[in-house]
Please model this.
Amino acid sequence: MKPELEQIDIATTQQSFRFFKRETVFFTPFWHYHPEVELTYIINGDGTRFVGNSIAPFSNGDLVLVGKNIPHNWVGVKHNTGEKQKAIVFQFNTGIFSSFKECARFNALFELAKRGIQFKNPTEAIVALITRFEYLTAIQQLGALLELLNLLVLHKDKTLLATEIYVYNHNQKHRVDKFAKVNNYILDHLEQKLTVAQMADFTHMVPQSFCRWFKQNSGHSFITFLNKTRVENACHLLAHRKMPIQEIAFCSGFESLSHFNRTFKKYKRQSPREFVRTHIH
Model:
Protein backbone atom coordinates (compact mmCIF):
# COMPACT_ATOMS: atom_id res chain seq x y z
CA MET A 1 0.00 0.00 0.00
CA LYS A 2 1.48 3.34 -1.01
CA PRO A 3 0.87 5.85 1.77
CA GLU A 4 0.07 9.41 0.81
CA LEU A 5 -1.95 12.46 1.70
CA GLU A 6 -5.60 11.52 1.28
CA GLN A 7 -7.11 13.79 -1.35
CA ILE A 8 -10.64 14.84 -0.46
CA ASP A 9 -12.14 16.73 -3.37
CA ILE A 10 -14.75 18.94 -1.73
CA ALA A 11 -13.98 22.11 -3.71
CA THR A 12 -15.30 20.77 -7.03
CA THR A 13 -18.54 19.35 -5.60
CA GLN A 14 -21.84 21.07 -4.90
CA GLN A 15 -21.40 20.69 -1.15
CA SER A 16 -19.34 22.40 1.55
CA PHE A 17 -18.54 19.12 3.27
CA ARG A 18 -18.26 15.40 2.56
CA PHE A 19 -20.48 12.73 4.08
CA PHE A 20 -20.34 9.00 3.38
CA LYS A 21 -20.97 5.56 4.87
CA ARG A 22 -18.13 3.09 4.95
CA GLU A 23 -19.03 -0.60 4.81
CA THR A 24 -16.50 -3.42 4.58
CA VAL A 25 -15.68 -6.90 5.87
CA PHE A 26 -13.29 -5.25 8.32
CA PHE A 27 -11.46 -1.92 8.51
CA THR A 28 -8.01 -2.47 7.00
CA PRO A 29 -4.83 -0.62 8.03
CA PHE A 30 -4.59 2.79 6.34
CA TRP A 31 -2.46 5.28 8.29
CA HIS A 32 -3.26 8.61 6.65
CA TYR A 33 -3.96 12.30 7.18
CA HIS A 34 -5.73 15.16 5.40
CA PRO A 35 -6.29 18.90 5.93
CA GLU A 36 -10.01 18.35 6.58
CA VAL A 37 -11.47 17.74 10.03
CA GLU A 38 -13.09 14.30 10.25
CA LEU A 39 -15.90 13.00 12.45
CA THR A 40 -16.27 9.20 12.49
CA TYR A 41 -19.11 7.23 14.07
CA ILE A 42 -18.84 3.43 14.26
CA ILE A 43 -22.21 1.81 13.58
CA ASN A 44 -20.88 -1.71 13.76
CA GLY A 45 -17.36 -2.96 14.31
CA ASP A 46 -14.55 -3.33 16.79
CA GLY A 47 -10.79 -3.18 16.71
CA THR A 48 -7.98 -0.75 17.49
CA ARG A 49 -8.09 2.99 16.84
CA PHE A 50 -4.91 4.98 16.20
CA VAL A 51 -5.01 8.79 16.44
CA GLY A 52 -1.57 10.39 16.61
CA ASN A 53 0.21 8.45 19.36
CA SER A 54 -3.05 7.19 20.89
CA ILE A 55 -3.60 3.43 20.66
CA ALA A 56 -7.01 2.44 22.01
CA PRO A 57 -9.87 0.02 21.38
CA PHE A 58 -13.04 0.97 19.52
CA SER A 59 -16.44 -0.70 19.29
CA ASN A 60 -20.04 0.06 18.35
CA GLY A 61 -20.98 3.67 19.09
CA ASP A 62 -17.41 4.99 19.01
CA LEU A 63 -17.51 8.70 18.05
CA VAL A 64 -14.27 10.59 17.35
CA LEU A 65 -13.41 14.01 15.91
CA VAL A 66 -9.94 14.17 14.35
CA GLY A 67 -8.33 17.53 13.59
CA LYS A 68 -6.64 18.47 10.34
CA ASN A 69 -3.41 16.68 9.39
CA ILE A 70 -3.49 14.38 12.44
CA PRO A 71 -2.62 10.83 11.27
CA HIS A 72 -5.33 8.32 12.09
CA ASN A 73 -6.35 4.76 11.41
CA TRP A 74 -9.17 2.40 12.44
CA VAL A 75 -8.09 -1.26 12.22
CA GLY A 76 -10.91 -3.77 12.58
CA VAL A 77 -10.83 -7.31 13.87
CA LYS A 78 -11.98 -10.05 11.51
CA HIS A 79 -14.95 -12.07 12.73
CA ASN A 80 -16.37 -15.28 11.38
CA THR A 81 -19.98 -14.08 11.48
CA GLY A 82 -19.90 -12.52 8.02
CA GLU A 83 -21.32 -9.32 9.48
CA LYS A 84 -19.81 -6.22 7.88
CA GLN A 85 -18.19 -3.36 9.75
CA LYS A 86 -19.90 -0.02 9.16
CA ALA A 87 -19.05 3.60 9.87
CA ILE A 88 -20.44 7.05 9.07
CA VAL A 89 -17.88 9.74 8.24
CA PHE A 90 -18.08 13.54 7.92
CA GLN A 91 -15.16 15.54 6.47
CA PHE A 92 -15.02 19.33 6.15
CA ASN A 93 -12.73 22.35 6.20
CA THR A 94 -13.17 24.47 9.31
CA GLY A 95 -13.08 27.59 7.13
CA ILE A 96 -16.65 27.02 5.95
CA PHE A 97 -17.87 28.40 9.30
CA SER A 98 -15.61 31.47 9.45
CA SER A 99 -18.19 33.82 7.93
CA PHE A 100 -20.71 33.09 10.66
CA LYS A 101 -20.08 34.78 14.01
CA GLU A 102 -22.56 32.39 15.58
CA CYS A 103 -20.16 29.52 14.81
CA ALA A 104 -17.23 31.05 16.71
CA ARG A 105 -17.95 28.63 19.56
CA PHE A 106 -16.81 25.78 17.28
CA ASN A 107 -13.24 27.11 17.28
CA ALA A 108 -12.48 25.73 20.74
CA LEU A 109 -13.75 22.32 19.60
CA PHE A 110 -11.54 22.38 16.51
CA GLU A 111 -8.58 23.37 18.67
CA LEU A 112 -9.12 20.34 20.92
CA ALA A 113 -9.56 18.16 17.82
CA LYS A 114 -5.87 18.71 17.03
CA ARG A 115 -5.34 15.92 19.57
CA GLY A 116 -8.40 13.94 18.51
CA ILE A 117 -11.53 13.87 20.70
CA GLN A 118 -13.52 10.81 21.70
CA PHE A 119 -17.11 11.63 22.70
CA LYS A 120 -18.05 8.96 25.19
CA ASN A 121 -21.69 7.93 25.59
CA PRO A 122 -23.05 10.16 22.80
CA THR A 123 -26.60 11.31 23.46
CA GLU A 124 -29.62 10.03 21.58
CA ALA A 125 -29.89 13.43 19.87
CA ILE A 126 -26.32 13.18 18.56
CA VAL A 127 -26.76 9.62 17.32
CA ALA A 128 -30.10 10.49 15.69
CA LEU A 129 -28.59 13.39 13.76
CA ILE A 130 -25.77 11.17 12.49
CA THR A 131 -27.83 8.14 11.52
CA ARG A 132 -30.62 10.13 9.83
CA PHE A 133 -28.26 12.47 8.01
CA GLU A 134 -28.31 10.61 4.69
CA TYR A 135 -32.10 10.98 4.39
CA LEU A 136 -32.04 14.80 4.57
CA THR A 137 -31.98 17.28 1.70
CA ALA A 138 -28.75 19.23 1.07
CA ILE A 139 -30.03 22.29 2.94
CA GLN A 140 -31.30 20.15 5.79
CA GLN A 141 -27.90 18.41 5.98
CA LEU A 142 -26.12 21.73 6.37
CA GLY A 143 -28.42 22.66 9.24
CA ALA A 144 -27.99 19.21 10.78
CA LEU A 145 -24.18 19.53 10.61
CA LEU A 146 -24.35 22.85 12.47
CA GLU A 147 -26.62 21.34 15.11
CA LEU A 148 -24.40 18.28 15.39
CA LEU A 149 -21.29 20.38 16.02
CA ASN A 150 -23.23 22.45 18.55
CA LEU A 151 -24.21 19.29 20.44
CA LEU A 152 -20.59 18.10 20.38
CA VAL A 153 -19.47 21.41 21.88
CA LEU A 154 -21.99 20.94 24.70
CA HIS A 155 -21.20 17.25 25.27
CA LYS A 156 -19.48 16.85 28.65
CA ASP A 157 -17.92 13.40 28.36
CA LYS A 158 -14.92 14.13 26.11
CA THR A 159 -11.53 12.40 26.10
CA LEU A 160 -8.48 13.81 24.29
CA LEU A 161 -6.54 11.11 22.50
CA ALA A 162 -3.06 12.12 21.27
CA THR A 163 -0.72 13.71 23.81
CA GLU A 164 -0.06 17.44 23.68
CA ILE A 165 3.67 16.95 23.08
CA TYR A 166 2.97 14.61 20.15
CA VAL A 167 0.86 17.24 18.39
CA TYR A 168 3.47 19.92 19.05
CA ASN A 169 6.27 17.77 17.59
CA HIS A 170 4.32 16.44 14.62
CA ASN A 171 2.95 19.49 12.90
CA GLN A 172 5.12 18.83 9.83
CA LYS A 173 2.93 16.60 7.71
CA HIS A 174 5.69 15.63 5.28
CA ARG A 175 7.04 13.37 8.03
CA VAL A 176 3.89 11.26 7.99
CA ASP A 177 4.26 9.62 4.58
CA LYS A 178 7.30 7.49 5.36
CA PHE A 179 5.94 6.45 8.73
CA ALA A 180 2.62 5.44 7.11
CA LYS A 181 4.40 2.80 5.08
CA VAL A 182 6.04 1.36 8.19
CA ASN A 183 2.86 1.56 10.28
CA ASN A 184 0.78 -0.25 7.67
CA TYR A 185 3.45 -2.95 7.33
CA ILE A 186 3.46 -3.58 11.08
CA LEU A 187 -0.33 -3.78 11.28
CA ASP A 188 -0.48 -6.10 8.26
CA HIS A 189 2.07 -8.46 9.86
CA LEU A 190 1.12 -8.09 13.52
CA GLU A 191 0.85 -11.84 14.13
CA GLN A 192 4.35 -12.49 12.72
CA LYS A 193 7.75 -12.06 14.32
CA LEU A 194 8.85 -8.42 13.92
CA THR A 195 12.25 -7.28 15.12
CA VAL A 196 14.11 -3.99 15.19
CA ALA A 197 16.68 -5.43 12.79
CA GLN A 198 13.97 -6.52 10.37
CA MET A 199 12.25 -3.13 10.44
CA ALA A 200 15.55 -1.29 10.13
CA ASP A 201 16.25 -3.27 6.99
CA PHE A 202 12.74 -2.54 5.72
CA THR A 203 13.33 1.21 6.13
CA HIS A 204 16.97 1.10 4.91
CA MET A 205 18.30 2.35 8.25
CA VAL A 206 20.66 1.02 10.85
CA PRO A 207 18.80 -0.27 13.96
CA GLN A 208 19.78 2.64 16.22
CA SER A 209 18.61 5.21 13.68
CA PHE A 210 15.37 3.30 13.07
CA CYS A 211 14.55 3.20 16.81
CA ARG A 212 15.16 6.93 17.17
CA TRP A 213 13.16 7.75 14.01
CA PHE A 214 10.26 5.48 14.98
CA LYS A 215 9.87 7.06 18.43
CA GLN A 216 10.04 10.56 16.95
CA ASN A 217 7.22 9.75 14.54
CA SER A 218 4.97 7.47 16.59
CA GLY A 219 5.43 8.85 20.09
CA HIS A 220 6.31 5.31 21.26
CA SER A 221 9.36 3.11 21.10
CA PHE A 222 9.02 0.37 18.47
CA ILE A 223 8.64 -2.34 21.12
CA THR A 224 6.04 -0.37 23.08
CA PHE A 225 4.01 0.35 19.94
CA LEU A 226 4.18 -3.30 18.91
CA ASN A 227 3.23 -4.65 22.33
CA LYS A 228 0.41 -2.16 22.97
CA THR A 229 -1.09 -2.90 19.55
CA ARG A 230 -0.80 -6.66 20.04
CA VAL A 231 -2.44 -6.44 23.46
CA GLU A 232 -5.39 -4.47 22.01
CA ASN A 233 -5.75 -7.10 19.30
CA ALA A 234 -5.70 -9.82 21.95
CA CYS A 235 -8.44 -8.03 23.91
CA HIS A 236 -10.79 -8.23 20.94
CA LEU A 237 -10.00 -11.90 20.43
CA LEU A 238 -10.58 -12.62 24.12
CA ALA A 239 -13.91 -10.82 23.96
CA HIS A 240 -15.24 -12.34 20.76
CA ARG A 241 -13.50 -15.64 20.08
CA LYS A 242 -13.88 -18.88 21.99
CA MET A 243 -10.19 -19.75 21.76
CA PRO A 244 -7.65 -20.88 24.35
CA ILE A 245 -5.65 -17.99 25.79
CA GLN A 246 -2.41 -19.52 24.55
CA GLU A 247 -3.75 -19.62 20.99
CA ILE A 248 -4.84 -15.98 21.24
CA ALA A 249 -1.36 -15.06 22.45
CA PHE A 250 0.24 -16.68 19.40
CA CYS A 251 -2.37 -15.19 17.03
CA SER A 252 -1.51 -11.75 18.41
CA GLY A 253 2.19 -12.18 17.70
CA PHE A 254 3.52 -13.17 21.14
CA GLU A 255 6.09 -15.97 21.06
CA SER A 256 5.32 -17.32 24.52
CA LEU A 257 2.37 -17.40 26.92
CA SER A 258 4.48 -16.02 29.76
CA HIS A 259 5.51 -12.98 27.69
CA PHE A 260 1.89 -12.44 26.68
CA ASN A 261 0.61 -12.64 30.27
CA ARG A 262 3.32 -10.30 31.53
CA THR A 263 2.80 -7.72 28.75
CA PHE A 264 -1.00 -7.90 28.95
CA LYS A 265 -0.97 -7.21 32.69
CA LYS A 266 1.45 -4.31 32.20
CA TYR A 267 -0.94 -2.44 29.89
CA LYS A 268 -4.34 -3.63 31.13
CA ARG A 269 -3.51 -3.93 34.86
CA GLN A 270 -5.08 -7.39 34.93
CA SER A 271 -4.27 -10.83 33.55
CA PRO A 272 -5.95 -12.16 30.37
CA ARG A 273 -8.07 -14.51 32.52
CA GLU A 274 -9.18 -11.62 34.74
CA PHE A 275 -9.99 -9.61 31.60
CA VAL A 276 -12.24 -12.39 30.36
CA ARG A 277 -14.03 -12.64 33.72
CA THR A 278 -14.65 -8.89 33.97
CA HIS A 279 -15.49 -8.15 30.32
CA ILE A 280 -17.30 -11.22 29.06
CA HIS A 281 -20.87 -11.63 30.23
Observations:
- Residues 189-279 form a domain with the Arc Repressor Mutant, subunit A fold (CATH 1.10.10.60).
- The chain has two domains: 17-164, 189-279.
- The chain has eleven helices and nine strands.
